Amino acid sequence: MLISISAFALAFSVFARWLSGEHTLAVPTVAAKRWPVLLLPLFLWLGWIAALMIRRKYERPLRVVWRLLRRDPLWFIRAMVMLAVISATAPAYSAFKLQIPQIIPFYADPIIAEFEAAVFGQDPWQLTHAVFGLYGTVVLDRLYILWFPVSTLLVTWAIMTRDRVFQARAIATMFFVWFVLGNFAALALSSCGPVYYEHFYGDDRFSPLMDTLRAYHAHANIKAVAVSDWLLSDEAQGKLGTGISAMPSIHVGMTFLTWLFVQSRIGWRNLISALLAVYVAAIWIGSVHLAWHYWLDGAVSIVGAALFWKATGFWLKPKASLFQSVRPAPGSAVPETPDFPKGVQAG
Q1: Residue 27: pLDDT above 60?
Q2: 271/316: higher pLDDT
Q3: Which residue range or ranges hold the Inositolphosphotransferase Aur1/Ipt1 domain (predicted)?
Q4: 131: domain range?
Q5: pLDDT at 339 over 90
Q6: DSSP summary character for residue 182
């Protein structure tokens, strides 16, 4: 299945680059420019292994790592291939996103805003700001910033795990969130979000929200305000790596995937799953509170990711028996062997 996933991702990358005026994939160039990102999951995995070996006081850590790689070289090759595919296709997500307003100009914001006002009796941001003042806004803003390292750990886990069924399911769902939800659904539901509502529509409906955030920013350096200004500036210049789109929310979708991955390995009745559920809620609330998204943006992402995750589970279940001979303990990135005792696991 990983071959099919990689083929789809690379094909989409070619299409997105063609759409943006670039008619070559240029994988070597992309990989060369993004090599720190390409190697980050590998460094994180090695760091995790090193920390566990230090804790257990192994005398020859390099020999232990070499044994891991030698025992299952196909696992390591598979992980490196997926690293290369993700690094090569990641720019395609932004390239496509940049073209959305050129293909279908933003139109859905007033429809979404009116729908939410009818459901909640007012715009949802008014409800969140009635609960969270300056300090609550700072907390939500800082939690929102944590999204990138959390997502990086999520990608690392999916790439480095030795559980081939879980790996295929996880990577397929991540690509679904990025490309199907983040690009194609975003194109069909072209929207800019409350933060840019006045800029693109000339309507001051969300001006009170932005005025409140800017007032908070003057006292507490709200990162969302600074980033939104920077992003709009880059968007005007058409630079790769930026792009404006609200529906659906990839921040909420990827955070929800973190909870899905964890609860699929250790269940949901535990502290870690509970904390992650709270974090998903915080990102969803924060996306509305900080003007990035509408409430419905997060709902669509959660429902879409959950349905696709469930579908891949049904599809891969009959294939799980094919990998039983190489499958380690759930979620483990390394085998449990006599010369590599239990406890030195990662992923």
Answers
A1: no
A2: 271
A3: 138-307
A4: 104-323
A5: no
A6: I
Q: In terms of DSSP H, where are the helices of the chain?
A: 2-19, 27-33, 35-55, 61-71, 73-103, 109-120, 124-131, 134-145, 147-160, 164-175, 186-188, 197-201, 207-220, 223-237, 250-266, 271-289, 295-316
When pLDDT is cut at 50, 70 and 90, the band that residue 245 belongs to is: very high
Give the C-alpha separation, 26 to 39, whole Å. Answer: 18
* Of the candidates 174, 231, 239, 181, the residue with the CA atom closest to the CA atom of residue 41: 174
The model's pTM is 0.82
Q: Cβ-count burial of 243 within 10 angstroms (0-12 exposed, 13-18 middle, 19+ buried)?
A: buried
Domain-located, residue 82: no
Highest mean pLDDT among 85-99, 147-161, 177-191: 177-191
Q: What are the residues whose beta carbons fall under 8 Å from the beta carbon of 171, sequence distance 6 or more? A: 2, 5, 82, 158, 159
pLDDT of residue 304: 96
Q: Let me know if residue 337 belongs to a domain.
A: no
- Please, are residues 94 and 243 in contact by the beta-carbon 8 Å criterion? yes
Residue 89 within any structural domain of the chain:
no
Give me the mean pLDDT over the 52-60 stretch. Answer: 71
240 dihedral zone (left: phi>0; alpha: psi -120 to 50; beta): beta
By C-alpha distance, which of 17, 34, 18 is closest to 86?
34
Rounded to whole angstroms, how far apart are CA atoms 336 and 343?
Answer: 8
Whether pLDDT at 147 is above 70:
yes
Query: Residue 331: is its pLDDT beyond 60?
Result: no
61, 127, 146, 283, 300 from 288: Cα distances, Å: 47, 10, 16, 9, 14
Does any domain span residue 253?
yes
Q: What percent of the chain has pLDDT over 90?
A: 46
Domain count, the chain: 1
Count of C-beta atoms within a 10 Å radius of residue 267: 10
Q: How far apart are CA 59 and CA 184, in angstroms?
A: 51
Task: With beta carbons less than 8 A apart as the criterion, state whether 279 and 255 touch.
Answer: yes
Here the tokens at position 63 are 């020999």
